[in-house]
Every structure is written in C-alpha cells, then in structure tokens.
Design goal:
Helices cover 69% and strands 8% of the residues. By secondary structure, the protein is an alpha+beta fold. The longest helix is centred in the middle third of the chain and has 36 residues. It folds into 2 domains: 428 residues, Growth Hormone, Chain: A (Up-down Bundle), CATH 1.20.1250; 63 residues. The protein starts with a helix and ends in a 10-residue tail after the last helix. It is built from 21 helices and 7 strands. The protein is globular, with a radius of gyration of 24 Å. It is a multi-pass membrane protein.
C-alpha cells in the first residue's frame, strides 16, 4: 500500500470516524444521564417507574433504528454514501440539541415525555442511516485483504462516543455544584453536541464519494430498488437473516452488556456514586478501545468467524461470575462498619407541592474506606404519612462511594467485558460489507446490523433492569444476576447459528 493511498484512507477514516463518533455521543448522552433524566421528564411519584420509563424511551431510539436503516440505506444505495450520512449527522445533532431544551415534566406535564420520545425516535432514525454509510464508505476505500483493519477504526467510534459522553458529563458535574447540575447543568452535554456536529459537517462536506460506488454509478450498475433487491431476492435475504441471527444479534447484546448494562448495574443495582462509575467505566474503555483495531487486524489474518464467535462464547460463560464478583466486591454487607462514625439526621423539608416531608439522612463509614449515604424521604400530607396500596410512601436514595482498591477491581472486571465487546464488534463491519454486493450493500448490511443492535441490544437495559427489579421484589437471593439471562440466551442462540452456518473465509467476498 503506497504512502499516498495510506494518507488518503486516513483522511477518509478521520472524517467518517469523527462524524460517527459524534452521532454515538449524541445517542448515548441520553443513556448516560438516564438516572437524572428520569426525574426531569417523568412523574416523580414513583422513581422506579420513572427510571424504567426512561429506559423504555432510551430503547425506543434503538427500536426505530431498523427503519432508519431501510430509509437511509435505500438513499445511500441510490444517491450515494456521502450525502446520505451528511443528512443523518444533521438530523442527529438537531434532535440531541432540542432534547436539552425541553422544559421539565413539572412545567409542561405529559408534553415533556412525549417530546422526548419524538426526538429520541429521530435520533434512532438518524443512527440507523449513519453506521452503515460510514462502515461501507471506509470499506470501499480500503484495499481488499485489509478491510478488517481499516473498518475497525470505525468500530472504535461507538465506544469513544460513549467515553466522551461520560467525560463531558463528569466535567460538567465537577464544574457545577450538585444543585446546579440537577437544576440545569445536565442539559449542557446535549447543547454541546450542536457545536461538534457543525465542525463534523464542515469536514464531511469536502469529502469525495466512495470510489467503488462512483464507479458502479458511472457504469449504470446501481440499484433502482435496493429494498426489493435486498429483501425480495431469496438468495440475498438468506444472507441478511444469517447476518442477523448468526452475528449481529449476539454482537448487539454483548456490546450493550459490556458497556451500558455494566454502567446501569453499577449505578442502580449497586448504588455506586455516578461520578465514580463514569470514571472507572471511562478508564476501562480507554484501556480496551485499542483491541477493536487489534481484533479487526487479526480477522484479516485468520478470518472473522472464530474471533466473533469466541467473544460470544466467553461472554456466555463468564458474565454471571463477573457480575457476581462485581456485586460481592462492593456490597456493604461484606464490609465492617465503623459504628462510632454512623450519623442520622432527621429534618422536615418543604417539598415541591408545598407540604412538608420527613427526611432522614444516614451516613456510614466502613473499615476499608467505603462510605454510604442513605436519604429516606417519608412523604406527608397535613402532617400524616401518605399511604399507597397499604404501604407508607417512602423514597430511598442510596449512594455508595467505594475505596481505591474496589475501584480498580471494578475497572478490571468491566475491562474484561470490553474485551468481549472488541472481539465481536471489531471485525463485524468488514464481515457485513463482504456479505453483500456494492449496489445493495448499504441497505443489506444496515438492516441486520440495526435489528441486531437496535432491537436485541437496545432493549437490553430495560429488559434486564426489569428482570432484576422483579427478582428483587420476589426476594431472590441473587436477584442482581437475573438480568444477565437475556444477553446470555440471545448470545447463545447467535453462537450456535454462527458456528453452524457462517463460513470462515473471505475468498468469495463481494468486491
């Protein structure tokens, strides 16, 4: 490969990756701030229901991604890769910025969650068109035999986008007081996206069309009906279904378990301080991200199949031991309390309905340096405890700050999960591109990717959190592990289908 061609493809990767990274950043801010958002756009009467509703709204963005894949994939195969993913970039940036502008539930009532839902759907549609375009664009610039390596740089953008979203949120929290962040500071990461989108748009504007697509278009070999040729053709449909059930479905649940479910688990099941979670997750992501490129490069040497299937198998076997260790490491039940340092403060405080609530703040310290703060709010009306379904209306917020040793233990356990992610995700762009011919590639690869990631992967946080909550209500002793059955079963099905039907060679790959 010449220096000139290397320089050219780095320009392509830089421009494509920056735009795709910003789209992922936009998409994942919502998930990273799910705990805060649940208190802003949904009724505050039931925090658990509000959080689940937020996760469901988060999931909607994933559910509509396949529709974005169909709509923008068709455009990409007809008018070109470049212009299509410029449109998706602007759509994503605009929707993200507007989410940061929506008044709270207290101000405009049910219109707030409705607007969030609508904008979340627009985000999903945009991302549905972005990824396939960026991956196809880079793959069509890459030399045959090196697609795994070059497209793996695009694969890093999803994790880098998540990392940047965490770092922006962390920086905003540190600059503002907790009260300022809770009041309006959480909107800042949404507002910042419009600046990044503007810069990326200017860069992408000067890019050329994919040479492979431009050649096909000049020769009159592009498709006039990509949807029909992709899904109406039985031969091609077989590969679409194989890509979905044998690869992207399992890849999707491994990706979201290793990053988003890990974050949700640490914050909402283990009650670890949000800033600590963002920091340790960020460290694990930084250490793990280079492995996307490593496994992409390795897939050029040994084939895509066994690397992706190996990642799924390791996840299937190790998720429960990993999450059990995560829970046991930080559980205060396994720690020795410094009883003499325990304090309880009781106070009456006016709530937003201008009646008084009883607030009990308990602070505990443990021998290993861990601290716990529990704020219990007993809701009163005219001085009497409010009773709902025969139970006193009480909200409890627990925050645990872990010691340095536990933090690094969690970094390691999350890092292992990120390695699984890099194994399944690093090679998959090249794998999908090589399954389909140029004229219907954008459409054909986008749909199974976004069904696998959008439907099976995107629903994971909501489904797994529901399983955990339900198991906890039923008194299951290891309730915190119940949410893992969803990714384990989905990955197992994908592993079996992939091992049986996917071939581990690229000799017949489409050029």
């Amino acid at each position: 490969m010449s220096t000139k061609s290397t320089k050219g493809i780095w320009k392509v990767i830089s421009a494509s990756s920056m735009g795709t990274m910003i789209e992922w950043y936009d998409f994942y801010i919502f998930g990273s701030l799910a705990v805060v958002i649940s208190t802003k756009f949904f009724p505050a009467d039931n925090p658990t229901a509000a959080f689940l509703a937020t996760l469901a709204t988060f999931a909607v963005g994933f559910v509509v991604r396949p529709f974005g894949a169909l709509f923008f994939g068709r455009l990409g195969d007809i008018i070109g890769r470049k212009y299509t993913f410029m449109v998706t970039l602007l759509l994503m940036g605009g929707a993200t910025f507007l989410i940061g502008c929506i008044p709270s539930y207290e101000t405009i009532g049910f219109v707030a969650p409705l607007l969030v839902l609508l904008l979340r759907m627009l985000q999903g549609l945009a991302l549905g068109g972005e990824y396939g375009g960026a991956a196809t664009y880079v793959a069509e610039h890459a030399p045959v035999g090196q697609r795994g390596y070059w497209t793996s740089w695009i694969q890093t953008t999803a994790t880098v986008g998540l990392f940047i979203s965490l770092m922006v949120i962390l920086a905003t929290r540190n600059v503002l007081t907790p009260e300022q962040f809770d009041d309006w500071g959480w909107r800042v990461p949404f507002w910042l996206s419009i600046v990044m989108v503007g810069v990326s748009y200017l860069i992408r504007k000067n890019m050329d069309e994919s040479p492979v697509f431009a050649k096909a278009k000049s020769e009159g070999k592009t498709s006039t009906n990509p949807l029909k040729e992709s899904f109406g053709n039985r031969y091609n449909l077989k590969f679409v279904l194989l890509a979905l059930f044998g690869a992207t479905m399992g890849q999707g649940v491994v990706w979201y378990t290793g990053q988003f479910y890990a974050m949700s688990f640490l914050k909402t099941v283990m009650f670890i301080d949000s800033s600590q979670v963002d920091t340790l997750l960020g460290i694990a992501l930084i250490i793990g991200t280079p492995f996307f490129v490593f496994f992409g490069w390795l897939s050029d040497k040994v084939g895509r199949k066994y690397i992706m299937m190996g990642g799924m198998l390791l996840a299937i076997l190790l998720y429960r031991p990993i999450y059990k260790q995560m829970y046991e490491t930080t559980s205060v039940q396994n720690k020795t309390e410094l009883v003499q340092k325990t304090t309880v403060i009781a106070e009456l405080k006016e709530n937003k309905k201008q009646t008084m609530d009883s607030i009990y703040t308990t602070k505990k310290a443990y021998v290993d340096g861990t601290t716990l703060e529990e704020i219990k709010t007993v809701h009163l009306e005219n001085g009497v405890v409010i009773v709902v379904d025969g139970k006193p209306k009480v909200d409890t917020k627990t925050t645990i700050k872990i010691n340095s040793s536990d933090k690094w233990a969690l970094v390691f356990l999350v890092f292992i999960q990120v390695i699984f992610v890099t194994m399944v995700y690093g090679p998959i762009a090249a794998f999908l591109v090589e399954m389909f011919p140029v004229k219907i590639r954008y459409t054909s690869m986008s749909l199974p990717y976004h069904v696998g990631n959008g439907i099976f992967g995107g629903l994971l946080p909501a489904i797994s959190t529901y399983f955990v909550t339900n198991a906890k209500d039923l008194g299951h002793p290891e309730f915190y592990l119940e949410g893992l059955w969803y990714p384990i079963v989905i990955a197992a099905v994908s592993f079996v289908v992939g091992m049986v039907y996917i071939k581990n060679n690229d000799k017949n790959a489409h050029e």
